[in-house]
Amino acid sequence: MTNKPLTKAQQKVLDLVKTYIEENNIPPTLAELAESLKVNLNAVRSHLLTLDRKKALKYIPNISRGIELLQVKPKGIPIYGYVPAGTPFMSQENIVDTFEIKKYISGSDDVFGLYVRGDSMKDAHLETDDLLFVDPKVEARNGRMVVALVEGEPTVKWYERDGNTIRLVPANSKYKPIEVSRHDDRFKIVGVVVGMIRSIDKKRIDDSVKYKKAS
Amino acid sequence: MTNKPLTKAQQKVLDLVKTYIEENNIPPTLAELAESLKVNLNAVRSHLLTLDRKKALKYIPNISRGIELLQVKPKGIPIYGYVPAGTPFMSQENIVDTFEIKKYISGSDDVFGLYVRGDSMKDAHLETDDLLFVDPKVEARNGRMVVALVEGEPTVKWYERDGNTIRLVPANSKYKPIEVSRHDDRFKIVGVVVGMIRSIDKKRIDDSVKYKKAS
DNA sequence: GCAAGTACTGTATATTTATACAGTGTTCAT
DNA sequence: ATGAACACTGTATAAATATACAGTACTTGC
After folding, report:
1. Are A78 and A107 in contact (CB under 8 A)?
2. Beta strand pairing status for B165-169 and A77-80?
3. Chains A, B: CB contacts under 8 A, how many?
4. CA distance to partner chain A, nearest, from residue B8 (Å)
5. How big is the CA angle at A211 (ends B173 and A203), to the nearest 5 degrees?
6. Would the CA dihedral through A14, A19, A23, A25 be positive or negative?
């Protein structure tokens, strides 16, 4: 897969092309490259030709600014599916999908994040510092997890409606459900929780004493 | 923020420019646009000039292919921090960060995803269908959650090393820790779990009976 | 009804940009 | 020591590309 190594001068040209495109959004001309590198444009040209030959970029003849980076597509994070025991996983064939946040949190463009605090959603396996994704455009329905403002205070609860009564149920039997009238204006559904993400490393290291007691 | 509306012809040119750049990675020439639209290149030019005036794109005079899209930066998901009770949240000032997966899962480029299955990590609040992010380049240390291959089977456990003995501890007292020798080659640490994401909506709706019993 | 904007065509022409060809030194393996 | 790849310069020239100017016709607000 890897191609012939580039010489220093070639690498310099390639790097400059990259920077130029990054900065200007359009590929450079030979003259521009030549000026930047303080060399003759024919020197640059021959480098571009070899860079093309070495497949480090695409040089299209007779086209102004005919330089294209063979850009590695912003690859998502590969996801290995449920892997059956015993098979070598992490092979190309086991990639069942590719992670792109927008695809995963498939909601509208208004999705926002919110940190969880407290243990009221413990039974739903949410803990302090988890990051929730909330979509204000998804309709709250029975059984969905919602973010609601109750007298100005944001809270995460299960949503359950019965006629004109809305019950906000915490996933922790320690706490009691909140009951409100549907038209009560001290109460407002902000959105529906469509996803969560937890950054495990940093935090979990501190918490790791926990499992020692448990096991 | 929104600029003057574009006419049909202008929109057509803008769309074509977008498609062209998408496909070719370099901006089109006037002649190319003209040919695609089957009009004279001066027609295209005047459209580009007005598109620039209306700030729909950038048209740079005297430069070949001097067209730039004013690309809306791929905006991340805004994150509202811990919001103090009573304050109006979802205001600009409350955005503590912006979610970009690569920043959050700050690891190397080799991070991959893996679905959780089973309840062996229940006490760590992981459940079936959660998506784990695993970084093979992060070093396994005591207290970190790791993905290991034990006799070919991938498993998620807490990592604990004592001299040459490695203990893989499940976060569920129902299961027993696995003990292996450090140099045992039927055993291999694949990587460290650096994050997880859970798509709540679809799945959770089906599971929502659960909370009814609980509350 | 008329100025002003839109949407074009057509023919030149200027400018930008790429190519061609002829050189001059290097370095480096055989 | 010699051919071959590398890294250049310099001068022309060809080709690609943008601009200028002069038109025509249609719509739209006033």
Report:
1. no
2. unpaired
3. 209
4. 26
5. 140
6. positive
Query: For this structure, is B157 an active site residue?
Result: yes
pTM recorded for the entire structure: 0.53
Within 8 A of A65 by CB-CB distance, chain B residues are 26, 64-65
Query: Measured from the CB, is A5 under 7 Å from any atom of strand C?
Result: no
Cα radius of gyration (chain B): 27
Facing B200 at nearest CB: one of A68, A145, A152: A145
Contacts of A99 in chain B (CB under 8 A): 101, 113, 131, 133, 197
Query: A144: which strand partners?
Result: none
Place of tokens 């990592």: B159
Tens digits of pLDDT across chain A (215 residues): 445 678 888 999 999 999 999 888 899 999 999 999 899 999 999 999 999 888 889 999 899 999 998 865 444 555 555 443 333 455 555 555 555 555 555 555 666 777 777 777 776 667 777 777 777 777 888 878 888 877 767 788 888 888 889 998 887 778 888 888 888 888 888 888 877 776 665 444 344 334 333 33
Q: Chain B residue with minimal CA distance to A90? A: B112
DSSP tag of B139: P
Alpha carbon B6 to chain centroid distance? 33
Dihedral over Cα of A10, A13, A17, A22: its sign: positive
